[in-house]
Amino acid sequence: MTDDDRVLFEVDRDKRIATITLNNPAQRNSYDAAMRETVARYLDVVAEDDDITVVLLRGAEGVFSTGANMNNAYGWYGEGSKAEEQKKRPSQRRRLTVDRKSFGFYHNLMGFPKVTVAEINGCALGGGFEMALMADISVIARDTKIGMPATRFLGPALGSLHMFFHRLGPVLSRRLLLTGDIITAGEVEHLGVFTDTCDAAAVTARARYWAEKTAKMPADGVVIAKEAFRLVEQSQAYQGEEVASYLFHAYGTNLQFSPGEFNFVKTRAQVGAKEAFRLRDEHFHVPEPD
Predict the structure, then answer these.
(1) Which of 81, 108, 148, 256 measures 20 to 30 Å from 216, CA to CA?
(2) CATH number of this structure's domain 7-255
(3) How confident is the model at residue 23 (pLDDT cuts 50, 70, 90)?
């Protein structure tokens, strides 16, 4: 499967809606740098097309996205072979360079000039969770698993901290980031985190409904409003976010682990990704009191 096959792009010109689908179901629609760049390229197409007013983001086969592909954690920073990348930690300057570019994608998505609608089901984890929170309109199944599990091996200063605190609130943000807990969307339905929380069978139709509803709005008015929304959020909630997000992520991926702490990257190199994930969950499991 080519990079273009792993991200699908369709345009319904009658409805003024473009659809971008993460199409990597064998890995629960996790994405690598090439996939993310393909999504960015399609977003640029939508942004520059005056006849499209809405972009619908979704994942193939009932899963939104489990976020960045962690099968080769340092591979995001390296340019050499997989074996070489496993032997040598990326330099701090390399981390900052790559993370500055990586978080540029999320900043552009959060400030995208057209309406973004997310169709979320199955899992929205890590970067997938961030994209779900960044959407203007989010439709999610109650049983969708959400969270930032990578904080368990990269630390809590991961991702768009300003957005987490603004969208989720400080209490829920701290819980998810300090524990790496995965919860269901139904557990936070009462908080209004997502636009529309519904049964899994209704997600696709509900997402299409919201896309068509917002697509009927005046296109120029939407663009002006999106810029106004961005200005308000930047002034009230996101000051310093553009630098803080990649800066803390770059430092956070260079952790030193004490004896007894779980080192995912080292464990993955020794036993493989699947077993490393199992050992991670085993390490962090603490039974709740009766």
Answers:
(1) 108
(2) 3.90.226.10
(3) very high
